[in-house]
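WARN retry 2 of 3 for item q-0093 after timeout on previous attempt; input resubmitted unchanged.
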Amino acid sequence: MTQGQLERLRARLLRGEALVAGVLSGTSGDGIDVALVRPPPLATPLASPSAAPQLLGFRTLPFPAAVSGRVRAALDGQALGLRECALLSRDLGRAFGEAVREVSRQCGLRPDLVGSHGQTVYHHDSNEPSGPATLQLGDGDFVAEAVGCTVVSDFRQRDVAAGGEGAPLSALADDLIFAALPRPALVLNLGGMANLTFLPAAPQGELLSFDTGPCNALLDGLARRFLGRPYDAGGEVALAGKPRRELIEGWLSDPFLRKAPPKSTGRDTFGEPWIDARVEEARALGVLTTGAQPAHLLASAAEFVARAAVQGALDFAPAGARWLVVCGGGVHNARLVAALAALSPWPVATGEDFGVNSDAREALVFATLAACCVAEVAVTRTTATGARAGRALGKISLPPLGEGGEHA
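OK item q-0093 returned
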């Protein structure tokens, strides 16, 4: 790709003509999400469009067998040496690129651009004394070689470099993605961690975003321990249990939940050791007994996730929201969604109610942020992640020369 080709790609993004793929594996580490998206015409400065990005295809593919176990081990806290880290970043980059190629083939489409978030293996959790730092594996150069088009990656790094938390970044694209959602509104992503976006009534109003605590990292961690499954499908086991107040109240005392935004967290705080400690508390309180089904524990965990999210919104988000819109894998957990509906002072809806595929929302985010990066559209907002305003996020990896990925 020449400089002229990159400029032509930028012009097509500004006109709303380019096809962009978003690819990631989230904190849950349960597969590779790929969305094929046609963003609306982008403006500089960024303004709310009359139409949302058009989702043309979405799939979740499993990790290749040679990668899946290594990802799971890294997410569960296994230390990575320099060699292991380098090899995993290489192999994840190839896996993300191959996933984009496969989904593009299935949909009969060819992307002009890819936004690749990568796999988070370290995040500062607001606890690093020297300041925030974050690491996502899955090098964008390997994605570019696999797909044969321009790739934007490493979105979190620029946000951190500009003084931000590096997460959650979804708020920086939500105003575009949720074009049909009446403002002001709250958008809650139920991923490995739960994060909340407050969309103000006016485009230049106070956008707010922060993590509210663990979600599927906790729910799926318990399912792996006690059910021998990657997750509690539909929240079926949790629905058979009764939330235990004495357990939930203790979990809600975690200092992270009381910390004012901007704030972000991850598995370094709410990972396997934290879950192990919660299991021991459940045993000590008699919530979990030897040989018994852990329904009460799973029900308590779902209730905790819901209470932490709703309380976070009440404590830190401006008043007046018209909706609480839930997205992410947690929308499929009936116990969790029922708890949110019971606790929320706002009407609860899913992304689908406003034209957004709940499972694809995060992939939509990184397709949108990649488009903004190449189009030189600033997205950072101090009220969201704490980063200084006026930055586009991501690093650009060019394709092999002469393979710009542009449509004729």
